[in-house]
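Q&A log
Question type: sequence-to-structure
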Amino acid sequence: NKIYINMSCNFTLNGSTLECLNHGGIKELGIIPVDEVLTVTPTTSGSTTDEVTAVTFVESKKFKKYAFRKGNANFVSNIEKDEASNTSGVKTDVTLQLNHMSNQLRREMTQLVGGAFYIVVKDNNDKNWFIGYNSYASATTGTGQTGATRAEGNFYSIVLSAETNEYPLTIDETLWESLF
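Response status: OK
Response body:
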């Protein structure tokens, strides 16, 4: 016999709310060169920045949007601390799989190498994130592969990394569409 426990989705445990749904991955993402952004305005709480509430661009510039199939994009943020020098920060790696190798994607991959970018992400939980605040993101690795069999993918894979003071900031939901 199985025993089923019906648990509420909104109880509090140690100050953290248990969420009902949790889906991994990135739904869509935007990339823009840092020099095409004039200002990024976050809210602050004490010495901590929280949420990006405004972004102003160089005239006629906006983030370029990329959409992804489930399982083709994610980001991971890790604290990096050096006890000896008493320094710390957060490294965020954004891993993208861009399906169907082409001249257009090859040129875009080439432009991402050596550039400094801001990245905005809408994850599969419909939460929006700003990556690269107080720093920038740049390409650290990339691969193009044809696949060996019909069932294997043909795609480019790239990792964009940002080293910042804090975890990625959230983005005000009302701001999201105006970024593109």
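Response note: The first strand starts at residue 12 and ends at 13.
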